[in-house]
Design a protein that fits this description.
alpha/beta; eight-stranded parallel beta sheet; 9 helices
Length: 229
């Protein structure tokens, strides 16, 4: 049964104090950190690349969940690995050969994630892609900017994937907060990315703990259903 993994999005952190923010999230109970790499081409925004990830790496033992919003994802695999990345999530819309890219990521020594924009049908990843990757990310906002409203219409994709792949890590990213965690958990997501919902919370540790509890309870229900089927 997949367990809850909470991945605070560093895009919502204080950029002048990235090391401090990473340590704060780890202290508050987050085992993962979500690092959005944007190239200004695949999405109309620029963030950071391998040098910034490498600079943060010595300051935390958190798992580095790197979301590559880039036009040529195969180009950056080695750089992100050397910087300390551990999950390399590329967009299915950005490659014509996802299976080869998954192999490239695995050969580099990282886990491979595959992301879907809100408008991309889930069928794009069902089959060999889902069977060979380590995680599927269902975007619940349009990629490229933080602070957007959660798109509940993406939840059927999450539920389809959870019922078809009961042991796969399924991540959601965009607009996650205490108001939207129930919909995501109940659909079957176990990896929760949240930016403002955690970083701007009055008590981030309580938010992270609540997210974990809701996700783990939902996963227990899915496991029970699967066992009785």
């Amino acid at each position: 049964m997949p367990i809850a993994k909470i991945s605070p999005s560093m895009l919502s952190s204080d950029f002048a104090n990235l090391a401090v923010e990473a340590k704060r999230m780890e202290k508050d109970g987050a085992e993962w950190l979500h690092l959005d790499v944007m190239d200004g081409h695949f999405v109309p925004n620029l963030t950071w690349g391998a040098p910034i990830i490498q600079a943060i790496r010595p300051h935390t033992e958190a798992y580095f969940d790197c979301h590559m919003m880039v036009s040529n994802p195969s180009q950056w695999v080695d750089d992100i690995k050397k910087a300390g990345g551990q999950m390399y999530t590329f967009h299915i819309e950005a490659t014509e050969d996802p299976i080869a890219l998954i192999k490239q990521i695995h050969d580099a020594g990282m886990q491979a994630g595959v992301a879907l924009k809100p408008g991309t049908p889930v069928e794009k990843v069902i089959g060999p892609v889902a069977e060979q990757c380590d995680m599927i990310l269902v975007m619940t906002v349009e990629p490229g900017f933080g602070g957007q409203r959660f798109m509940a219409q993406c939840m059927p994709k999450v539920e389809t994937l959870r019922r078809k792949y009961p042991n796969l890590d399924i991540e959601v990213d965009g607009g996650l907060s205490l108001e939207t965690i129930d919909a995501s958990a109940d659909a079957g997501a176990n990896v929760i990315v949240a930016g403002t919902g955690i970083f701007k919370a009055e008590k981030p540790a309580e938010v992270i703990s609540t997210f974990k509890d809701k996700v783990n309870r939902a996963q227990e229900k899915f496991a029970a259903e699967a066992a009785s089927a």
